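Researcher: Structure for this, please.
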Amino acid sequence: MKITKDLYQSSLALLTDFYQLTMAYGYWKSGKADQEAVFNLFFRKHPFQGGFTMAAGLEYLIDYCENFNFEDEDLAYLASMKRKDGSPMFEPDFLKYLSEMKFTCDIDAVEEGTVVFPNTPLVRVRGPLFQCQLLETPLLNIINFQTLIATKAARINLATLGEPIMEFGLRRAQGIDGALAASRAAYIGGCTSTSNVLAGKLFGIPVSGTHAHSWIMSFETELEAFEAYAEAFPDNCIFLVDTYDTLNGVKNAIKVGQILRSKGKEMLGIRIDSGDLAYFSNKAREMLDEAGFPDAKIVGSNDLDEHIISSLKSQEASINVWGVGTKLVTAFDQPALGAVYKLSAIKSETGTWEPKIKLSQQSIKINIPGIHNVKRYYSNGKAVADMIYLENQVIDSKSTMIIDPMDPTHRKRLMPAFYKEEILLKTIFKAGKNVYQIPTLDQIRDRGIAQLESFDKTHKRLVNPHIYPVGLEENLHHLRMDLVLKAKKLDNGLE
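Model: Predicted structure, token format:
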């Protein structure tokens, strides 16, 4: 799907922070616009205090980059901007440069549905400094949100033990685009359907839904409302039973279910949207079974998230389909992932690559320098460790050490020859041309499910998960420490 053209009908080049444009102008003005650079997009901490994160948003990223150009209306707007003295913010030759710019970057990224970890690059951009800089804000906007929602959905899917999840957060989502991106990402994370019809049309996600309380209230009686709905949709009857009295609503659903059965149709189930879901679902299950409807599903909803679902599971609630909305599509308990986009290398005038380091009083904010990639090692189909390594570094197949970038005392010895390995960053764009075959959304969803299955259950605990080993290859660790110490000396005037 061509997201930019289908949804917005125009360029999205101005979907950026103003300082990206002022820096781009500064690069151009100082003759650095075409200097080659490498940026990495990564996050520093798992969301939701979890033990894993699921990458999403790559298809949006591809579409954005394929349509990355400044149109006449964009340039006219930039030309209208003034400085405090009334002079133009950007001179005409710079705007001409923007109008003639062609996207030429290389982009490597992890595939959607991949389980990822802090400090490892999700996206690596290599190309002219000018273009790399302009991509920062839109790529963060795309990857941050969809990765966050896919991760939330994956956690909910783990809590339901793989039972169907209907995503119906459209009315509570953060605007139109937020709703569409959330529906897509939630499906990647394991949801089975969405209530969002436009998302169904655009992305091919199965849509689901029956009726609301207003349907019941518009009739004289609940029974009459159920009968009318059964007449309209005899093959799609899930009755919402808690408008007035939940258990009486179950009785009325059973009555209409018997009428449907006499006509050769079958009631699909009921939905409970309020009250004590464990108690009412168990009572409803008893009533449905006794009435001869053991296959009727019980849908549970009402501000659910992974923690409430886990609690309901521990109470042996008889819910087997889950409706999740607000707390999924808004990532209610952590509304931002916090991924960042940092310069890691720049090409000098002599043509050599210079690794770049950013210092901070907070060690978590010191970036990883150089042009690096990630290898995941598997043993008997299970992921055992991720190694961040310099791409030009030859890895010893017999023995290598990975070192935690946040705590160098945490180390793990690996014997790569005994493992199956996967390089996580895949080539997406080469010299501005898309060379990646985008999978279908169902294939992406299947990848996400398979990825989670490859990790030990201790890493997937919703509370206090076991930390999965991720570390820098020894040479990269030493390079990073050398650059940190050198930068600190310069900062202190010692060199």
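Researcher: Any notable elements?
Model: The chain is about 40% helix and 20% strand. Residues 48 and 378 are 26 Å apart (CA to CA).
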